[in-house]
Amino acid sequence: MSATEEQILVIPAATLDGLGAFEGFQSDVQRYLQPILASGELSFRPRSEMEQDPSFKQLIPYVVLQWTDGAGITHVFNYTRGSGQGEARLHAKRSIGIGGHISAEDAAGGSDPYRTGMQRELEEEVRLDSKFEESCVGLIYDPSSEVGRVHLGIVHRFVLQSPDVKPNEDDICNTGFITLDQLHARRDSLETWSQLCLDHLF
What Gene3D superfamilies does the record point to (predicted)? Predict the structure, then answer.
């Protein structure tokens, strides 16, 4: 292990199972999120090890940005993941979620690593110039794939006042807001987590 390897926030799979095993999208946030964050079982571990160890789940904030136009039509921000994005197994997939790993650096100075990490990931990936209302609306666990087996998604919905969102990274490609009808028509091109969010939130 490199001395500079990223240390990421994880929870033992057994702790999650103790709260109630689930697959797919879980909307009972109250049952899971605070008990996970307050469990005392969270730890920072080497990312390379955790990518291959399903006995731990990596916590991933996954932020969905939506905006409703003057005609009452809801639009959702979407993009394509470029080759520079951290998870190689998701490259070229379209996504409606913005987020990433919580790193040990996010706990610096005694700050809340989950909130700090979510904000950092959001600011790294996009420039958000709209006021918004935030809510945590679900969790995602998808053991059907190699990448899904080691990650636990925590879904946050940001309802924006205006569609003022621009990419901050070259690897956030083909960005923009599209209507729900357009998004449903392109469902097959979305990564699994985005498909689950589309099906359960819209």
Answer: Nucleoside Triphosphate Pyrophosphohydrolase
